[in-house]
Amino acid sequence: xxxxxxxxxxxxxxxxxxxxxxxxxRKVSAFLEERGIEVEQFHLPSTELEKYDFIVSVGxxxxxxxxxxxxxxxxxxxxxxxxxxxxxTHAEPENFxxxxxxxxxxxxxxxxFMRLDCIVNDSRIHTxxxxxxxxxxxxxxxxxxxxxVNDVExxxxxxxxxxFSTPIGSTAYALSTGGPIVDPYLPSILIIPIAPFxxxxxxxxxxxxxxxxxxxxxxxxxxxxxxxxxxxxxFPGDRIEVVESKYPAVFxxxxxxxxxxxxxxxxxxx
Amino acid sequence: xxxxxxxxxxxxxxxxxxxxxxxxxRKVSAFLEERGIEVEQFHLPSTELEKYDFIVSVGxxxxxxxxxxxxxxxxxxxxxxxxxxxxxTHAEPENFxxxxxxxxxxxxxxxxFMRLDCIVNDSRIHTxxxxxxxxxxxxxxxxxxxxxVNDVExxxxxxxxxxFSTPIGSTAYALSTGGPIVDPYLPSILIIPIAPFxxxxxxxxxxxxxxxxxxxxxxxxxxxxxxxxxxxxxFPGDRIEVVESKYPAVFxxxxxxxxxxxxxxxxxxx
Amino acid sequence: xxxxxxxxxxxxxxxxxxxxxxxxxRKVSAFLEERGIEVEQFHLPSTELEKYDFIVSVGxxxxxxxxxxxxxxxxxxxxxxxxxxxxxTHAEPENFxxxxxxxxxxxxxxxxFMRLDCIVNDSRIHTxxxxxxxxxxxxxxxxxxxxxVNDVExxxxxxxxxxFSTPIGSTAYALSTGGPIVDPYLPSILIIPIAPFxxxxxxxxxxxxxxxxxxxxxxxxxxxxxxxxxxxxxFPGDRIEVVESKYPAVFxxxxxxxxxxxxxxxxxxx
Amino acid sequence: xxxxxxxxxxxxxxxxxxxxxxxxxRKVSAFLEERGIEVEQFHLPSTELEKYDFIVSVGxxxxxxxxxxxxxxxxxxxxxxxxxxxxxTHAEPENFxxxxxxxxxxxxxxxxFMRLDCIVNDSRIHTxxxxxxxxxxxxxxxxxxxxxVNDVExxxxxxxxxxFSTPIGSTAYALSTGGPIVDPYLPSILIIPIAPFxxxxxxxxxxxxxxxxxxxxxxxxxxxxxxxxxxxxxFPGDRIEVVESKYPAVFxxxxxxxxxxxxxxxxxxx
Lengths: 270, 270, 270, 270
Hints:
homotetramer; elongated; 270 residues; 20 strands; Tumour Suppressor Smad4; alpha+beta
């Protein structure tokens, strides 16, 4: 594999599998071990995975999102798709061997995708590849909030919630909320309300280096949710920030043009 | 007041007030008692209110929605607005006396607005003036469902939820979800997904006598919420129906043309 | 066939065909003539068609829309679909004989769908089954207008145009503009702006008996277009009204549930 | 003024005025001439303007868009707002003197905004600051087209048209069509259909260096319109491309934060 322009020798690989994919994970491990690579299998995400030369995820996009939740410095991820519409994966169960082979022979590059940090009162509480969502904690009860970009208020509304999405996330939760599809290589952050009780509003898309801040209206707490995986309560008065993480996600290059993959995924969820 | 075309003598009135409006409620009660009417004050909604000649609500639209939750046969409601954008109310604190006066002198008609029943496994669990919402019970987790109108499947999707709204409700939660504004006198039911994870979808608007049915996908339970007030869990396999209630809500005629009120309300939430 | 509850004897039928469907039209005519019915073939729409017992349209929905442009009192229409996604048609070229047979034997009812009149300065200029559109006459130049329902202003905006659609029309041009799908049997009129230069707006749906009026801003004329077929210029100062026509369109009953047809059509244009 | 990091001496300035702003234009010219600057007044846009040290536009955003139509190498533009909601202008008639003064003293920087070229069969036919629109040339008649990004088909639909917008243009025509608001400094291109006859679709936002291509369906020609100002016919079979222009627009720095200006503009068009 080629990372930062240099070919890197593969010594040990972590294989993470979704509960129903143990059989496939074993095949992957056997395949790698036959090539003299040390393999460790993980059922649950782990910070240990940072130490491996690369990670194989056996599951869907959700499995990759889970893995990333526990990782800062991210080894390259190779995803084998067992889910519905994988956009982060690199192979199907039928063809993972040939794809892995080219990685091992050093002919595949890695690429980085920005992640978002959610920082509350100066402590990072989440890092997300798709989106940080500030959501009502009580179904059918609106939360009110003001949103600032570089200290300029761009929105003040009551809604079910507010999404802050990466370009990669524009085909995830953001797709449900009226946001646009964003080229995954366009360095930017999407800001999209979820079911706002307001006549006039727009999704916003700002630069990756924007400093985004949320102020909850005084009457009600909310949940900060990362990639639909982890959630923490946030409270009126909290200083809630969403900014680019210094720890991007790292993937092997997609075997298919990314715009083509997105166009294909959109057809599948029509 | 004129109900069903007949002038009706007023003998006893229930006054329901929101926690912060006791002072105004006392003024209303005194005003009515001076005219020989028996008045009872309620802080909380009660089925007892069915027995009164009419009801005065001192609060916002939310107070009226709460009152209706506990009432089947609905006496005419007169709303004094202490909320943000009352669309169901008839007077402001400044002018309630003159408006009540015309009611007492028999010159005001009453009007009925359809409500929706939510029926689960043949038992009615909710009646709503604005909307029945089938919502995810876990923030940031989609629920899947199929929706049938007169046994024809019109939608099969995963979403944050699905709304079934009356015309009156089209300026409430339904407004947040991409639904149209519906003339409150058009007998119809709106069906609108909330943040659907699907590229192509549309709000639907069907006749009031439509039989609507929801089937949850097998993987996850949901919440059935009436007017954002009451919620119950519903489960995959449940037979969930939404139909017109045989108990409409009854209000005194609006002093302002209803289309004009809606246009005005829309400006306020721009 | 059964019209207004009475079985009616068929004596003469008009067959209207789209330019590329003459062959099929001849087969239809032969089929009817074999059963002793007098048949006249029309290539172009004609007011003459009012005099026939029923009309067979050989083409797509567009052919039916054209036929209706020239007809006030509408004989029942039977559509044979040669277009993309017929929602107004009753048969395909493969099965028209059996469908026509049941009409001739008197076992099919007719149904009526509301049309809209566009009245300018008290003269009717258009009647439309799908929609009346008030459009800019210059591409990329906005027109400004105010819209009134029963003399209440509900909208004042600049836009590419404004649509006034029947329920049947909700799957035609109205679908392109953010409007909802409306049950074809819900007596109502949709009002939807086309590309409005305004942050906050909503489609409206009002009762069939509403009196709708448009006032153009003084700076620019517009086009009034009926069903995408006929257009006339309208000018600032003109009194432009859209109301239910007293001449509904008449069709044989659809062989398929109409909600099911719409759901099917939506899938085809996903 | 400071261009490309260097302070530049001002010798001659072009003043362009909208037809109703001659009086103000004369005041501007007098103000500059008093400071020893050579001034030429223009009523109509002209390629001559390329030769001036900077340009003063007296009018609205539309005046600036017109000026830019005729200019490749763009001197810095200073806009005095006589229009509705100027987002490109720098001063109001009341305060233009103090703003011009700081330019003349060399304390104001210039900034560049990307423009889009529309290239047909390898010839540039338009350059636009806001958007290139491919529109139907016949009101109420759809055009069909396929859209490619870097030779990947992302859309195939029939619609009133398709917009290709810069970030600056996201508050212009693109705002009417369901597009997001884009940070004017995010180097990107928006692709948004206008009234598409299709159930599922999304606005796209791609990188500035994307190569965008449009193929018209065979049945109908269209119009290519730049900034609502200039239009040319395009035909099925034409090779229609939209790419970043090598000639950006140049403005003096906005006296107000650009995100704040946009948020303000959105409030004005609510």
